[in-house]
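Here is one chain, start to finish.
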Amino acid sequence: MSTVQQPDPRDRPARLAVGVVGAGRVGPALAASLQLAGHRPVAVSGVSEASRRRAAQMLPGVPLLPPAEVLQRADLVLLTVPDDTLPGLVEGLAETGAVRPGQLLVHTSGRYGSKVLDPALRAGGLPLALHPAMTFTGSPVDVQRLAGCSFGVTAPDELRLAAEALVIEMGGEPEWIAEENRPLYHAALALGANHLVTLVAQSMELLRAAGVEAPDRMLGPLLGAALDNALRSGDGALTGPVARGDAGTVAAHIAELREHAPQTVAGYLAMARATADRALAHGLLKPELAEDLLVVLADEAHGTPGNPGAPGTHGTEGDAG
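Its structure:
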């Protein structure tokens, strides 16, 4: 075993002074990750008490300052504010002369590319859009989660290498996204990640109502396997009563949901129709079974309860999905 001691990242000379404007869940985590790579956080801005606590936990000893003063101290500025706030913030910083020529300005919005930073570019700033495709908790575990995390990267061609280098230093994997594709890219991530949380939360509520004491323990293996299968096989992983064409089972589901959790019916119907369309398009759902299923879904969507036992309704045994 080698006895050579590995250098501590804190012993390396700091290359960039890093500032954070917006101490939400993302900014402090990225700054802490850059610190591990040898950079030096020098200032952070935060308004709410939660933001101040988060900054103190993730970036201990780093002073809390107004945004303009953060820019005065930093070579690299992380603009980690809500999407709707970002354009006005950039314009304000540029108009007040806070942006210095040669200063790197990085925003982490999934919605925007680098064009939203044009006011800073005209002031001599260097614009980068680095969006981590990750959910953040606002705790130190976020720094660990950045390892292997994909980042949606958009920047002028001459800054592409710099943008990708920063992502790699944070432990991430750069994925180039064209400026015009940023909204679609962000919609795709929201569809998969944000809606997943809603679906899982609803599923746990229903299981509790059904008497399951530990819905998280029940769902964990099932959802983990479903996610793994979907990532490996795409639509080939579709399963369950909709993909099988079990119209009677689907009608029974909807009847139960109307009685016990009516707020979930609209989402169930929307997802069932989308699943049926994809299963049919990929040859997983037989057309003759799809007809009965789509009739049930159409009837339920218009508030006309379907009849699970009606002639022509097909039911088959299958997996637990």
